[in-house]
Every structure is written in structure tokens, then in C-alpha cells.
Design goal:
The protein is mostly helical. The chain has five helices and three strands, in the order αααααβββ. The chain has two domains: about 50 residues, no CATH class; about 60 residues, no CATH class. Strand 2 and strand 3 form a beta hairpin. The radius of gyration is 16 Å and the shape is globular.
């Protein structure tokens, strides 16, 4: 899929929740597939979502790391862990949240998506 068509679909499909008759179309299926299979479309999509969340993706090792930290950034003082989060970034390290009702996590040293050594920023 060309990036120009993907951007058009993004405008259509980014307004959630989508009605069932929309996400059950061939166009939507092609759009979702392009996120994972087309590097240009995927990178553009991740940058848009990261930007909308107010995250500076350049602080992280890769776009996917920054993208997956969006849910972690939604945690609050009242709810210190977001159970939709698959990775967390605390002041001094990164980790995989343990979803047991607390705010524990397993520290990791390498990015699960790109494999780079993680540095604290």
C-alpha cells in the first residue's frame, strides 16, 4: 500500500470506536496489514500515535519502544500501573510489568523490539 493511501485510511479509521461494518471491510484489513508489513506505513503510523500521546520518540531506541510506552504514560498517582501496558519506563530503568495488582515489574536491559541495549534517558 502506498503511504498516501495509508494516510487517507488513517483519517478514516483512526476515529475510534469504529462500527463493525467499517472494520469488517477489505480496506480496513489492508490498512491494518500495512501497519505491520509496510515499513513506511508502520513508521508513519507509530510516529502519529506517539506524537498524539505527547512522547518524544527520539528519546528511545526505536519507534516500537516509544509506541508501547504510550499505555505506561497513562498511569497516574492514583493508579500507578496501567494494565494495558506491556512495558514500563521508570526513572532509572525499563521493565515488563507484573500484572498482579501492584506496581512491580521485571527489569530488562535490552529492547524487546529492536534488541538494542537500553539506556536511561
Amino acid at each position: 500500500m502506498k503511504l498516501t493511501l495509508f494516510k487517507k485510511y488513517f483519517k478514516t479509521f483512526n476515529d475510534l470506536p469504529l462500527p463493525g461494518d467499517v472494520w469488517q471491510t477489505a480496506e480496513y484489513e489492508a490498512y491494518v496489514e500495512a501497519i505491520g508489513l509496510n515499513k513506511d506505513c508502520g513508521d508513519w503510523y507509530f510516529k502519529q500515535k506517539i506524537k498524539d500521546a505527547g512522547i518524544n520518540y527520539k528519546k528511545y531506541c526505536c519507534l516500537k519502544m516509544a509506541y508501547h510506552l504510550i499505555e505506561d504514560k497513562k498511569a497516574t498517582l492514583e493508579n500507578p500501573i496501567n494494565y494495558d501496558s506491556v512495558i514500563t519506563h521508570k526513572r532509572i530503568d525499563f521493565g515488563l510489568p507484573i500484572h498482579d495488582g501492584g506496581n512491580s515489574y521485571i527489569k530488562i536491559d535490552f529492547c524487546p523490539w529492536c534488541g538494542k541495549k537500553l539506556s536511561v534517558t
